[in-house]
Amino acid sequence: MVANKKPIVLVIAGHDPSGGAGIQADIESIANTGCHAVTVITSLTAQNTDKVTNTSSQNPSFFRKQIKLIFDDFNVSACKIGMISNSEFVNIIHEELLDIKIPIVLDPVINSGTGENLSPKKTYEKILSELLPLSTIITPNSLEAKILAGTDDLEIAANKLLSYGAKSVLITGSHEKTNTVLNTLYERDSTPIKYEWERLTGSFHGSGCTLSSRIAANIALGNNLKNSVEDAQQYTWQTLKNGLQLGKKQIHPNRFF
Predict the structure, then answer these.
(1) Helices 142-149 and 154-163 sit at what angle, rounded to 10 degrees?
(2) Coil/strand/helix, residue 206
(3) Spatial distance between the Cα atoms of 216 and 229, rounded to a whole number of angstroms
(4) What is the Cα–Cα distance from 124 to 163, expressed in whole angstroms?
(5) Strand pairing partners for 187?
(6) The pLDDT of residue 141
């Protein structure tokens, strides 16, 4: 038997039937780097490129069992955490990852790309207290950062998220009213690094999932954080520039452009 030498990335996130965001976006983004994704789904959703109408969480004990079985079998090199719709799941993820020393990329999905709430306040408050201390990097968009930190000042928001225990924070700026998209990487005791990208026309479905999973895969490949973040931004921008109008509304990132 030939040994599989692909780095393994665990994804814990929701499922989007349209394939634009969620688990399918994560798998595609990770596969593009040459890594292998193992996945545990938090919730099923009823959504398309226009709207989300319902979410349905997994059975908690079954969810825990899936995570345990993955770690029993695979040598996981990094983990990406996406949508968590239930605070009980935050507890389970915290307990199962607490003693496993791997890089964790946390994409705190609060609202869908079409605007619907996917993470109640009780859940994201638990995320702040239980998952940020485990996270190598958290990747909120500017709206999520403001909600999580309770402030409209993004620099204050970043520092507050760092104070909760996250080692670094990448705030993306596509939701801000700027001519270009400004993303900023914050690390403790370091000068923030700003990245400027051409603002593309159109509305995209799954850009945050693409970015965060690409960062996790890059880290799994042995790249340092800054290089991982820079490559992931370039890759995500290209997936959007080469995006596909597969549904009637938001554009799908083309993760194999």
Answers:
(1) 60
(2) coil
(3) 9
(4) 16
(5) 168
(6) 94
Q: Which alpha helices (H) appear in the chain, and where do they start and end?
A: 22-33, 60-73, 87-97, 121-126, 142-149, 154-163, 207-220, 225-241
* Alpha-carbon Rg for the chain in angstroms: 17
Q: pLDDT by residue (tens digit) across 78-130? A: 999 999 988 999 999 999 999 999 999 999 987 655 555 556 677 888 999 99
Evaluate the CA torsion angle 48, 50, 53, 55 in order and state its sign.
positive
What pLDDT band is residue 3 in, cutting at 50, 70 and 90?
A: low
**Side-chain-facing half-sphere of 35: CA atoms under 13 Å:** 31
Calculate mean pLDDT across residues 7-27. 97
Q: Rounded to an integer, what distance in angstroms lies between the CA atom of residue 77 and that of residue 152?
A: 35
Q: Tell me what the pLDDT averaged over the chain comes to.
A: 93
Of 95, 69, 112, the residue nearest 209 (C-alpha): 112
Q: Is 197 helix (H, G, I), strand (E, B) or coil?
A: strand
The torsion angle over the Cα atoms of residues 254, 211, 171 and 119, rounded to 10 degrees, is 90
Kindly write down the DSSP assignment for every residue of 117-182, as one continuous string: B-S-HHHHHHIIIIIGGG-SEE--BHHHHHHHHT-S-HHHHHHHHHHTT-SEEEEB-TTS--SEEE
Residue type at 198 in one-letter notation: E
41-75 pLDDT, tens digit per residue, is 999 999 999 988 888 999 999 999 999 999 999 99
Q: Give buried/exposed letters for 139-168 (b at 16+ CB in 10 A, else e).
A: bbbbbbbbbbbeeeebeebbbbbbebebbb
Query: From CA 66, how far away is CA 72, in angstroms rounded?
Result: 10
